[in-house]
Amino acid sequence: MLYDVVIIGGGVIGCALARELMRYRVHAVLVEKESEVGFGISKANSGIIHGGHHASPTTLKGRLEWDGNQMWDQLCAELGFGFKRIGELTVAVDEAQLATLAKLQQQGADKGVPGLEIWLPERIRHEEPNLSAAVIAALHAPTTAVINPYEACFALAENACRNGLELVTASAVTALTATGDTWTVQTTRGSFHPRFVINAAGLYADRIAELAGVRSFTIHPRKGEEYLLDRRLAGIVKQIIFPCPTPVSKGILVIPTYDGTIMVGPTAESVDDREDLTTSLAGAEAVFAAVEGVVPGISERDCIAEFAGLRAVADSEDFVIGPTAKRGFINVAGIQSPGLTAAPAIARMVCDLLRSEGLPLQLKPDFTASVPKPLHFASLSTAEQIELAAREPRYGHIACRCETVSEGEVVDAIHRGARTLDGIKFRTRAGMGRCQGGFCTARCMELLARELGVPYTAITKRGGGSWIVCRRQDEGEA
User: Fold this and answer.
1) Is the pLDDT of residue 181 over 70?
2) Which residue, 53, 263, 375, 477, is most buried by CB atoms nearer than 10 A?
3) Cross-strand pairs, 194
4) % of the chain with per-residue pLDDT over 90
């Protein structure tokens, strides 16, 4: 079967591009090596839509940052994932950092970012009374937002599939061959034959380019450790708190997540292992030392979960987007921060590239922009919860006590594509609370087994070999 486009990589970039492509009469398939979309870099993202002023306008990521920022409101309205503009403060704790605030403010002004203001101590204390007295000034950016990035991936992919995308998961690319105007993309789940290949493979984008014979860059993984805090700290800050940035990092942040919890981090450590998602004592000490210096009320004793993610950093420290020496192969690589922010703008840019490279893009008259919004039981009023449970009894059964997630929400998540415990967690928050799945894991496994018609031994945390239970060899039973 011939395809117009094969997209390699199902992170937020691949999913955003797939959804944008499905506006047109295009036959496309997205190939992802993980068991579900969003399970690579995107699942460990800090979940920030940057205000538009952080990256220099002389870089590609700087030019796409503000364009992408402005596109997320409509995407959220259409697809229903968690998104809220809460603003940010970049804080200065000494006189030398005031010049950095002024530079960021001018950088934003040059791009047309509205509302950037320098706040002095009186305004800072009024708006964020829990910040340290060491903060002497701050740059306020009202355009910054928080988002659930994994929810966005799921919604983008679901909408793309409703509009004709083929999605193939648990499928790693093993070879790429060009013959005339057609490529052969060999994977662990068969071969695909497109006119165009989009390399959105994140941490492995350089290796995919090498398979195609057009490697011109190297990905250098940069690890960031993040720490999730107990809900009792909700509201300790209202906005995202940034320190003054360094040449390699925006620093260690205090992030009020969309769901109300506080997250702190990330670190920025260059590593060689592209699968290294370990956290460390040194990382925790660095994060909490930095955070406690800005928000003294936060302590590492408040940590309920820790995780790490890897950024796909190219040699140039910029995005690598464009056609290559081999016709039909297009790189979308090196997408580090602000890659999430820029994702919808990157998707439009790549569609324009495909058009300029000879792919006809005719709009579909029947494109459907929305998907049914998921129901969040915990956000309903008590009266609404009682009425819903009376009408649909499965919503009266709580599967996750910490986050008040109902059995009905878990079943809906499975019907919408969840095939793993993490797939349920990222769609519903079951397992994200204080007990970190101690109560709800068994119940979610029971629902997965029932709804998918599989044994418990087939259920994994995140796909691959991450089994929860295994079969006893002596009795032949689980």
Assistant:
1) yes
2) 53
3) 3
4) 93
Beta bridge partners of 145: 49, 85
> ∠ CA 204-419-225 to the nearest 5 degrees?
45
Say how far apart CA 373 and CA 378 lie, in whole Å: 15
Q: Which two tokens stand for residue 284?
A: 């925790």
**Rama region for 208: left / alpha / beta (φ>0; ψ in -120 to 50; rest):** alpha
Could you tell me which residues come within 8 angstroms of residue 289 by beta carbon, excluding any fewer than 6 positions away?
none
Tell me the pTM: 0.94
Q: Does residue 358 surpass a pLDDT of 70? A: yes
On the CB side of 314, CA atoms within 13 Å amount to 26
d(CA 295, CA 176): 50
Higher pLDDT, 40 or 478: 40
Per DSSP, the residues of 84-151 read EE--EEEEESSGGGHHHHHHHHHHHHHHT----EEEPHHHHHHH-TTS-TT--EEEEETT-EEE-HHH
Res 478: pLDDT: 46
What residues have CB less than 8 Å from 381, skipping those under 6 apart?
none
Measure the CA–CA gap between 406 and 353, rounded to whole angstroms. 44
Largest CA distance in the chain: 70
Q: Convert the pLDDT of each residue in 366-425 to its tens digit.
A: 999 999 998 999 999 999 999 999 999 999 999 999 999 999 999 999 999 999 999 999
Q: Which amino acid is at 64?
A: L
Catalytic residue ranges: 50
**d(C-alpha 423, C-alpha 417), whole Å:** 8
Mean pLDDT of 232-252: 89
Catalogue all structural domains in the chain, each as residue range(s) with its CATH number.
Answer: 1-82+145-218+315-373 (3.50.50.60), 88-142+220-307 (3.30.9.10), 377-458 (1.10.10.1100)
pLDDT for the residue 465: 87
